[in-house]
Structures are given as structure tokens and as C-alpha cells.
Amino acid sequence: MRKTFVMLSLALTLSAGARTATHFIQEDQYRAKVETAFGERVKTVGKQFFVTKGEKLTGDELEAMKFLYAYMPLADVTDYPTSFYANNVKLSFEARNEMAWGNKVPDLLFRHFVLPIRVNNEALDNSREVFFHELKNRVKGMSMYDAILEVNHWCHEKVTYQPSDARTSSPLATVRTATGRCGEQSTFTVAALRSIGIPARQVYTPRWAHTDDNHAWVEAWADGKWYFLGACEPEPVLNLGWFNAPASRAMLMHTRAFGDYNGPEEVMLRTTNFTEINLTSNYAPVAQVNIVVKDKEGRAVDNARVEYKIYNYAEFFTAVTKYTDKNGQSSLSAGIGDMLVWASKDGKYGYQKASFGKDKTLTVVLDHDAVSDSKETVARKQTIDIVPPAENAKMPEVTDEMRKENLRRFAYEDSLRKAYTSTFLTLEQAKQISQRGAEYLVKARGNKATIIDFINSHKDNEDRVMAILATLSDKDLRDITKEILEDNFTAKTDQVSPRVEDEMITIPFKNYFEKNIDAKLQKQFRDDPYKLVLWINKNIRLNPDKKALQIAQTPVGTMKAKMTDNRSRDIFFVDVARSLGIEAQKDAVTGKVQYKKDGKWTDVNFESAGQKNAATGKLVLKYTPTATLDDPKYYNHFTISRIVNGSLQLMNFEEGQADMGNGTTWSNAFKDGHNFDCGTYMLTTGTRLANGSVLAETTVFNIKEGETTTIDLDIRQSSSEISVLGSFDSETIITKDGKDVSILSQTGRGYYVVAVLGVGQEPTNHALHDIEKMKKAFEDWGRPVVLLFESEADAHKFNKDEFANLPSTVIYGIDKDATVRNRIATAMKLQSKTQMPMFIIADTFNRVVFVSQGYTIGLGEQMSNVFNKL
């Protein structure tokens, strides 16, 4: 690490020991602020959502409850009973009193990083109770530091990494599934640590700077310091994970502290729900850029929205949003690399590239708007070169003995988890239960009993059962409840899908709306769905707090509160409409809410009188296929965003299955044209180079009613040819099928790929899935791909079925005595000899023309581009 994590002040640390029984919140001024916020919340939402009678709360527990209610998202207030929070508050105090470190944790950290239940956007559950009773004796007698390590080993027994969709499952659902993406693993691990009174928070890099994708991990506090760890990826020591090197290249890492938090970290954003704090300097060198926003007349613009954007997945993604002060100023500390700064207010906008470490002050002029943009079909074209931070990883010392012991435990924990997952149904077993439902039963994993029960309960109407199951995502099948399934089955409507977007589905709603909306009113809505729009506008208030965290409310919660936010209102409309037999949807690409009438989709606009579809035009992208890129992919090479009120709104085209192929491309969506609503858009294209830099280009264009807009899809390419980066001896010995052989003997003369894998590690999994995507390119190249395990044990541990689509040119072997690993690291001057995976492209004249180490998304495509230049 670049430096030791932030140590809280001595006064803060001593405050834990100075605690009295008088108040949960010791500071009079802060306690008064919480009381005021709580009072406003109850006044706004209604007293019926805070009922403590019969809960037998102590004074401290009641104050803690008020603190939670003062700052929790609206959905959490309306969708969970007071008793749920009361139970969790009592468990928090029980852990504080029972665990040896309870009196060491400062009040500030207990309040913001132990007490809160929500970690991310997951459904809330009773995991705190389950985890506390399972973990408290396991960590008894340990130091806080060792307890954090032990909890992570426990987490690894339960869960391992697997990519999935963006919805975050609850901690208990993650355990039941035994897999989770990084956001779910970290949510689960934070919940586990908090359950035993250890302050913990989810750290998030919204997007990497040097490669596509993002990542989440955990920070935990012990004896005055914050440490980090890879969730469910236990290491021998803290401050160590596979992401040390990527994190040192990140532009931004942050966390959201529950409530109004006043700690030592830099505050990026303060809302009525959370305080967003900047943690980047804990992992990487940082620099500050001061932004000044002015109008075209040169006057400072106050309260302008300033979005700091990282290039990732072929878009400029907003990593953090801030607002200017009365002098038109905003600032941010970030990694030593490039971002795009996009400022807007009242529909006017401007943008500039900011180079942190070079630029001290940058002026952004709001010199564009819808009127100026609409004057030309192509309003602007701009090339932007993006350079990410350089790698600067610092690794804590780990002895060979420590590493061997950790690997031993790792293998044992894998065996425990695999013993559990072996109880999941195979396809053959599932077919014996239900031929038609077999696929759903396999995907349900640990939730199989729920799906079996649902199928068996309705054998007299199997068609409706299968119709409902067909609407569910893989993740839905893993955590949906029988209650939700039955609600959709027994409802009269033929609109059987319970899902609108990636919201949580926790409370049945279809029968509820059938019973709680007057029959005459239902008929009016079915005859004219626009009347449902008017009814919602009249009966459901919008939360006046526009910066509030928009956790999707359940439709029942919205109905009972008669208050919601924009996102939840969209979901509410679709769910009510479907419950009453009206076909409705939220369009996945544009995000527009629509209902179908007379066989045609009609756009819903809550802000306008009358409903009519937006005028549309066609966009055609012109592209000439090249030897290195025959069909550019959406999210890999280009994206399209609409400029709405001065801000970018991404068009979310189908991306294909996680870590697999398919998805939207130039040829299947834009070659012959795609219809868009009229307005101003920005096409972003980019080529990610092997060093992480990006050759980007933006084109601002207009779509006009009834017209076809044709623009060039320019994908910038590096002008440099392949160069020799170093040397690697092709006569190096590996082990294959129990025999010592040279790499040359396996590859023959010519170019080849050789890699050393970190079996089961997230970077290796991503790399192999990326190669699967490019299977055809590898096989067309026709040269061998030598994949090496670090040991015989790793070779046995490797699950080839998980990577069944690797090229037929793959050869497996073992890197005997780490010879290949060490030679690559030495020859290519890599900072680490242990960071996996390592990939090189070399030839039998010992020339290396490509090298990659660690976490790189799009690796298969990068290597394919090299193949085409050899």
C-alpha cells in the first residue's frame, strides 16, 4: 500500500471508552440534527411506518432506530416493518456488548458502519441474526485483525465468484446460491463483519481506468485502522488481494457511509441518505483538479452539476457527481490519469478532458444546448486520448509458510462449499422431477425446493407455471419466494411477469391491486390506460428530495405511502397495469415506460397532458470492416447516449450473457438503421490499447423526425506496428501428462500464446471467458495456446466444464517449479512474480510481442488484434 490507512484521531478513539448510558448519540448538536431529520421523515412519510409499541426498546435502541429512520431510503421505510429494524438494532447492541472489541469501536464508526443494515441495493433480510449466531463463537478470543481474516475464510466456505446480472442479491440469498459477483460477495462480507460488531464498508471503483468493468471489495476497521480485503477471497494478511495492482491504477475508489457522516475522509457528496467519501488515496497516488464552471458570458455558474467521467465499456461513465459552489467551483482528488469533466445546468452543458497530476485548474464553459446542437445534423466531432494511471502497487510481505497454510485452508473451504453445491440438481435429476421445468430447477441452485414446490402445486395448470418461470432471470430463480410465485399464478391477469427492470421483488402485489382498486376504476384503466397515468399523478406524490437514493420501492409500499420517486413510479405504473391485465413495460434500451393499446406501444409521460409517442427518426452507422475489426461491438467499441437536459443518458442495448459472446453489434443493429426518438445524441467510440490507454472519439449528432441520419462509425486504431517487448526462451521446460517437455516441443515453430493461471481467481476467470468469446479468432489464427497451472493440485482443481468454449488449440500443462512464471516476470520486468494470470504472445525465435498480467477485461480481443498484425 502507498501509505497506512487513515487512523482516526485520538479523541475519536477515546470516545468509545467515554461512552455513557445517557444517549446513543453523545454529541448534543448531532443528536439534535438527527431528531430534526427523523421528525421531518415521519411528517413526510407518515407515522404508520414507525410503530415501536411492543418492541421494548431501551433509550439507546430507540435513538438508534430514529437515526436509521432519519436517513434510510424511502423504500426501506415503506417496505419493511418497524419490528424488522428493531430486531436488527437489538442485535447490533448485543454484538457490541458481547464481543471483546465492542468497547473499542468508536461511536462514530458503530453508528455508520456497524448499525446500518443496508450495504448496497440488495433486498434486506435477517442475515445479521443468522451470521451473528454462527460467527460469534468462531472468532471468540481472537484479535479484531485475526477475526476479520477468519470471517473472510468463513465467507469463502459459503460463496465463490461468478459473474451475473446487475441486481444485488441479499446476503442470505447469496449464501443459498453459493456464488456471487463482486458486489454480492462484498455485500455479504460486510454484513457478516457488521453482525459481530466490526465496522465494515463496501469499497467500490465505479469503473476501472485501465480496463473495462468495475469492482467492489471490503474495508474493515481494527484497533484504529482501516484495512482492505477481497470479499470471500481470504489471504494470509489484510491489505492484500488480487486487485492491489489494478487499484493502484484506478482513478476513483469510494464508499457511501450511511447518514450524515463526519469522519476524516474527503467528502465527495452529501445527501439526505448517505455521505459519499473518497478513499482513492488509500490505494494510489492522487492529485486534485479544481473545476470552474462558467456560462458563455464568462460568469460563474453556481449549483451546476459536475460529472467526473471515466472511459469504460466504450462510454464516458459518471464515476462521481458534484455540484458547484456560489463561485462556480468544484474539485476532486483522483488517480494520476485522465477523466472527462461534464458540467450542466438548465439544459446547457460543456465538457473538457481533465488530466489529474497535470491540470491544476480547468474551466468548463456551458456553451452547448439543445438549440445550438440542433442546427446541424453532426454538431461536433472530437478525438480524445485517455491515459490511465501507471501501476504503483505496494504488496505486504507474506512468507512461504503463510501462503502454504492459506492455500491449504483455501482448498479445504472449497471442499466444504462443493459438498453443499453437490446437492444442487443436475439436468438429469431435474428431468426426473419435471421435464418441462428441468432447466429452471438446475438454475435455481439452492432455491430448488421453492421451484419444485411451485411446479408440484399446480400440475393441473403446467402451462401457466412454465409461463411464469420463463419470465424469470437466472438470479430470480435463485432467490424468488413461493409467495411471489403464487401471487402471479393466482392473479386473474394474463400478464404473468413479476419483473419490470432490476428492482427487488419482495412483496406480492398482483392480487393486492386486484382487491384494492375499485372494479369500476379497473375497467376505466383497461379501457384507457392513460387514465391510470392521471390517477397516479393525482394519488401518488413524488419525493421532493431529488438527490435521494432511489432504491426501488415495492409497488405495495408505494401504494401505502402514496409517495415515491421517479424510478419507483415507473415500476409502480407497469406493475399496476399488468396486475389489471394491461400490457406494459419499461423499455430496456431507452428506459421509457409504455403501455400497449390497440396493438401499439404508447409512451407514458407523467409530466404532460395527453399521451403520444415521441417522434422518431433513423440512425445508420457507416463502417468498413477491417482485418482487425470486422464487426464493432456495442460496449466494446462504441455506445450511444442521448443528451437529456444537458446530461448523457446511455442507450442500454442488449449486451449478451455475462462473460459470454453475442450481444449488440454494428451489423445486427445499426448497419441497416435503428429508430431513435428525435433529439441530440452522442456516439462514443474507442480502442483500448494493451497499456490501458484509449483512443476515443465523440460525435454529437441529431435525429430528426422522419429522417435518416447517417454518420461514420470511426474506430480509431494505433498507427504503431507490433514491436518486440522482450524475450522468452521457448525451450523452457513444463510438465505435460506427467512428463517434462519443452514449450517448443508442444507448439512447433512459429508464434504461440503461453499463460500461467491463477485457478479460481477472478482475474483468471475473466481472462479465460474473454478468450472463449474470441474462440473463432484464436482458431482462425491456428497457433497453440499453452495454459499452465501452478501445481498439480491446481490442475485437479480446474473445472474445464466452466470453460467449455475455449479454443481447440489450447494445450494444458504445469509450470514446474514456477520456471515459466519467474522467467516471464524477470524478462518483462513485471512488478510482481505472483500476480496471476500472466499471458504472453511469443515466437520460437524467443521474441515477445505482447504481455498482460493480472486483471484485464477484453484480453481475448487484444490478443486477436495482435494476431492480425503478425
Report on the architecture of this protein.
This protein is an alpha+beta fold and 870 residues long. Among the domains are: 10-281, no CATH class; 726-867, Glutaredoxin (3-Layer(aba) Sandwich). Helices cover 34% and strands 23% of the residues. A hairpin with a 2-residue loop joins strand 10 and strand 11. Helix 2 crosses helix 3 (59-71), helix 8 packs parallel to helix 13 (400-421) and helix 23 (555-561) packs across helix 24. The longest helix has 22 residues, at 400-421.
Note the topology:
Layout (H helix, E strand, L loop, with lengths): L9 H8 L10 H18 L13 H13 L2 H6 L2 H17 L8 H7 L13 H9 L8 H15 L1 E2 L9 H7 L1 E2 L1 H14 L4 E6 L9 E8 L2 E5 L14 H5 L5 E5 L7 E5 L3 E5 L7 E9 L10 E8 L2 E9 L5 E7 L2 E8 L2 E8 L5 E5 L4 H4 L4 E9 L13 H22 L5 H7 L4 H7 L3 H10 L4 H9 L3 H6 L2 H9 L19 H7 L2 H9 L2 H10 L1 E2 L12 H7 L1 E2 L1 H14 L4 E3 L6 E5 L2 E4 L12 E7 L15 E7 L2 E4 L15 H4 L4 E4 L1 E10 L5 E10 L4 E5 L13 E2 L5 E4 L2 E4 H5 L3 E6 L5 H12 L1 H7 L3 E5 L2 H6 L12 E5 L4 H9 L10 E6 L3 E7 L5 H9 L3
Parallel strand pairs: 1-2, 9-15, 17-18, 22-28, 32-33, 33-34
Antiparallel strand pairs: 3-4, 4-5, 6-8, 7-8, 9-12, 10-11, 10-13, 13-14, 16-27, 19-20, 20-21, 22-25, 23-24, 23-26, 26-27, 29-36, 30-31, 32-35, 35-36
Helix pairs in contact: 2-3, 3-5, 7-10, 8-10, 8-13, 9-10, 14-15, 20-24, 23-24
